[in-house]
Amino acid sequence: MSRQASNKNLKKASKNKNDEFYTQLVDIERELKYYKAHFRYKAVYYYHYNFGS
What we know:
With 53 residues, the protein is mainly alpha-helical. The chain has a domain at 17-53. It is built from 3 helices and no strands. The protein has helices at 3-15, 25-32, 36-39. It starts with a helix and ends in a 14-residue tail after the last helix.
């Protein structure tokens, strides 16, 4: 891919706001093993947005 084509795609993506990205659970689990000591004795809360209500 040429640099010009790449730049065009980036500009197009910045205009189009429907390019949301969601991290998959398996990717999070895979990464968290490196932070085990940081989370020891901590409470972790997650935000769950319910689209239906």
